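Bug #77: duplicate submission created two jobs. Keeping one. Sequence:
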Amino acid sequence: LLVSGAPSTASNDDPLENITLLSAYALANEGAPQIVIARYELESADAQKAVARGRILPQVSLFGQWSDNKLRYSGGELADLYGEQNYPGERYGYEFRQPLFNMSSYREIERQGALVRRFEKNLDQAEIELFQAVTDAYLKALVSDATLAQVSVELDALKQQLAEASALYDRSLLPLTQLLETQSRTQSVEADLIQAEAEATVATEGLAQLIGTRRVTLTPLKDEITLPLTFSSVARVVEAAIANSPVISAAEASVAAAAATIEREKGSWWPTIDLVFSHQYSDVGFDNLSSPPRSSDSIQLSINYPLIQGGSGRAQIRGAEADYYAAKYQLEAVRRSIEAQARSSWVQFNASTERVAAARKAFETSAISIDAARKSVRAGTAKVTDVLMALSQRTRSERDLTYAQYQSVVAWLDLELITGSAPAEVAPMLSVALMENSAKAIGSVD
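Kept job's structure:
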C-alpha cells in the first residue's frame, strides 16, 4: 500500500488538510494494536514451527567435567602409609544425535504448520476489520460534517426569511403569528446546529482514536459516488465469500491443527529411533587409580518403545479428539455465519442503491419547492409557514441523501471484503471514489 503525501507519524501540532480515506487507513495501520498483536502472534507461531522442525534435525552437544578429588584414610597403617592424596580429574567430549524415526515429532510439525496458517488468516481478518472501522469512522465524520453544513445553510436561509418576514410585518403585510412562527423555527434550527456541532465533534473523536490525531480536515464527499459491482447474483457472492473468507480459512486451519494433534498423541505410542555417536576424553584418577588418560568413541542405535503410561496417553488422545470435533462444529458455524453475512451484504447493497436514488429525487424536489413557496408568499397566495416547511424538507431530504450514500458505501465495502477483496486493493479505489477533488487531496495512489 503506497501512499503519497501521508506522513509516517501523526502529530497533534501539524494539522492534516484534506485527508483522504487512503491516508486515514495508512495512519491507522501504522500502530493499530490489533494489527501489531496479530503480527506478533504470527511470529510466535512461526517460531514454534521452527522449534518443532528442529527436534528432527541433527543435535550436537559438548560436555565437560573438571574435578579436584582428595583421598584420605582414617587411622590404621594405610593412613600412615599414604596420608592424603589429590587426584585432579577431567572428562570432556561431544555427542551427535540424529532422530531417525519419531512419529510424534513429525505430527507436531504438521500441527504447527496449521497454526501458522491460522494466524496468517487472523492477520488478514484483523486488517479487514481495521479497514472497516476506519472507513466507518471516516464516513461518519464526513456525514456529520455534511449535516452540520446543511443545518448551517438552513439557518442562514431562515435568518434571511426572518428578515423578510419582519419587513413585511412592519408594513402590515404579514400577520404576527407568521412572524412568530418564523422566529420559533429559527430558534429551533439554532438548537439543531448546536446538536450537529456536538455530533461532528464526537465523530471526529472516533476517527482520531484510530488515526492518532484530531487536527484533520476531511476531503468532502462527491455529490454522486460510483462504485463498481463485481458480482451479478447472490449465489456468486456466497460462493466467493465461502471460498475467500479468512475467517473460514482460519477455522479450517484450526481443524487441521486439531487433527494433527490427534495424530501426534497417537504417534507417542510409536517407537522412537535415534542414532547417537559420542566421543570422550577422560583422565580421572580417582575413578580408577591404575587407568591412564584415555579416549573412547561410541556409536549407538537407541530405540524407545512405550508400553504403559498410566492411562495418560489414552486420556490425551480422548482430549485431542474432543478438541477436533469442537473445531469442526466451529468451522460449520463460521461457514453459516459468513453465508448469512454475504446474503445480508448483497441485500443491503441493493436496498441502499435504491435508497440513494429515491433520496436524490426527494432532494431535487425539495429544492424546487423552496423557490415555489417563496414566489407564492411574495404573490400573496401562500404563507410564510409554507417556506419554513419547504426549507425544513430540503434539509431533511439532504440529510437523507447523505446518509443513504453512507449506507451505500458501507454496504459496497462489506460486499467487497466478504467476497475476498483485500483492504490494500479496495482502499485506493474507494478513496478515489469518495474524493470530491482528487488533485487537492493527499493520499493519492502512487
